[in-house]
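If your schedule permits, I should be very grateful for your opinion on a structural question. The matter concerns a single protein, recorded as an amino acid sequence and a row of C-alpha cells. Could you please explain, in whatever detail you think fit, how the C-alpha cells follow from the sequence? I set the record out below, with my sincere thanks for your time.

——
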Amino acid sequence: GLSQYSSDPRTEWDLSTFSTREQVLEAVRNLRYKGGNTFTGLALTHVLEQNLKPDAGARLEAEKLVILLTDGKSQDDASLAAQTLKNLGIEIFAIGVKNADEAELRQVASEPLELTVYNVLDFPLLSSLVGKLTRVLCTRVKERSHRETTDTPVNTGPQLSPTDLKISAVTSKSMHLAWSPPLRPPKKYRVVYYPSKGGTPKEVVLEGAESSLQLSNLTSHTEYLVSVIPVYDSALGDGLRGVTSTLPLSSPRSLRVSELSHNSLRLSWKAAQGATHYLVLCSAAPDGAED
C-alpha cells in the first residue's frame, strides 16, 4: 500500500489493490509527485486510520510495517503519532532525503535505530539503500511472525469504537464535541482537528473516561475536520469523524446618522458581539452620488 502526504494525506493504493509485483511496479511508474507541506504526524495518523484496516487489506494476523520517506522536517508532532503506531505493534522505518531532520527520524522510527533509520543526501542515492533495506525488512517480518504475541495491532467493532459524534455550541472561535463511548472504555482518546483547506493539525489527548471536549481558539468562518480516535493498550478502535464550520465574526448592525451639521455628524449602531474596538472610515461621496 502507498500514501502520499503534504497538508492532506492521500491514499494512492491500498494493500489489497494489486496482487502481483508487476502491477505494483507499474503503479509506481505512473505515480505523480504530490508537492506541499510536511505534516508527517497527520500522515502517520492517516495510515493508521485508513490503510491499516481490514477493509483496506490489512490482515489481523500479518505483521505491520510502515516505511516513512520524507525530505523535510515535520510541521506537526510526528513523534506522538508515531508512538501510537509503535504502541500497537506497528514497526516504523524512517528514510530521510535532502533536508530531513535526522533527530526527528530517530524519534519516529522503531528500535533498533541502526536498522530502522536511513538518511541520504539526494533522491538518486535512495537506490543504494534498496538491497540492505530489503534484507532488513524481510528478516524483521520473519522474526516478528515467529514471535508469539497477544497484541492485536488494529481492531474494530462496537466494543472498541465510540459512536454518535455530536458537534454543538458552535461559535466563531469554539465548538463542543460529545460522543457515546464504546462498550469497553479506552485508555485514551486522541482528538485531532484542522482546517479542511489546509492548516496545522492540532491534537488533544483525553483520558478514556472522558466523552466530551470543548475546542477553543479556533479561526472564525472556517471549516474544520475533527477525528476522535480511541486508543487501547493493544488495539485501536474505529475513529469518529465530523465536519463543521465556525461562525463568521458578528457585525455591527443598524447604522444610523444623526446630529448633522456643516462639518460633523453622529453615528450610532448596534454592537457586534465580542468586538473590543471599532474602525470607522469616512469619505466624501463621489460626484453624482447621494450625499
